[in-house]
């Protein structure tokens, strides 16, 4: 059995030495044939140089280097497209997901004869209150909005087998929300509980902007409910308008004098309807933008260089 480990790296020079040592120790101890596919996602620091020195002395290290930063999900996708193992493990470079649990996940995979072992975060060390609370809220909102139910508190850290890898390679969509896609596929999936550590060195590479992007890829990729929101909001505003019409007729008939009335209610109505309209146009825009990107059919990533892959 051959094990592929897929590690996306973006500006990870601070942590790579430690990661490499820990990963290789663990993988060697399993006794399996293995490859570590390190994807350099257009890093601007010494990441590629450090990775190349690993690849020179260790043929189990394979490098895919992008022409620029294409983002975490695309880096993992490239690894999944190019790995040759019977099973593949997706894991971060920063050691937040401890590599020492990989052999345990392989054991679960063998014992349960399943297709996916997905890692669920029991505890998350060293993360800001903001990140913890938004992550918790997000996974639950996604479940509420989507027609499928996704496991909560689960990232991309998981083990997948050949069957799932082959299925994944047939997915043509460009905006991939990997954790969602894998769960959407079905097959036999088993949770594996673990404690998430602190980042071993360096800082998070997920800017607030990147977090928002990932979150919206998840929601707009797996739910059509936001589109239906327009109908609900429209219904509410029609009801409010009806009440106002009745009120206006009442005033016309029973009002004592003809003073200018209703200035504030007019402004409120205009603002309220304008807000609803812009909001729903924005939602439409998200979906149309997605259609636009899919029809352009551009590649999700561009590989500049591959090292240690036999052609
Ligand atoms: N990453 C990447 N491209 C990016 C951002 C992040 O390949 O544009 C990688 C990063 O090197 C790490 C993983 O994705 O291996 C997760 O990123 P990070 O640990 O910074 O995110 P966090 O754990 O803080 O959410
Ligand atoms: Mg991290």
Secondary structure layout plus pairing:
Blueprint lengths: L1 E8 L6 H15 L2 E8 L6 H11 L3 E6 L5 H11 L4 E4 L11 H11 L3 E9 L4 H17 L8 E8 H8 L8 H8 L3 E8 L11 H15 L2 H30 L8 H34 L6 E5 L4
Parallel strand pairs: 1-2, 1-4, 2-3, 5-7
Antiparallel strand pairs: 3-8, 4-6, 5-6
Helix pairs in contact: 9-10
The structure holds uridine-5'-diphosphate and magnesium ion.
What features would you describe in this structure?
The chain has two domains: 2-207 and 299-307, Spore Coat Polysaccharide Biosynthesis Protein SpsA, Chain A (Alpha-Beta Complex), CATH 3.90.550.10; 225-296. α2 (47-57) links the parallel β2 (33-40) and β3 (61-66). It is 51% helix and 18% strand. The longest helix is centred in the last third of the chain and has 34 residues, at 263-296. By secondary structure, it is an alpha/beta fold. The protein has an eight-stranded mixed sheet, with helices on both faces. It is elongated, with a radius of gyration of 25 Å. It binds uridine-5'-diphosphate and magnesium ion. Uridine-5'-diphosphate binds at residues 8-10, 12, 41, 69, 71-72, 75, 92-94, 96, 199, 204-206. Residues 8-10, 12, 41, 69, 71-72, 75, 92-94, 96, 199, 204-206 line the site of uridine-5'-diphosphate.
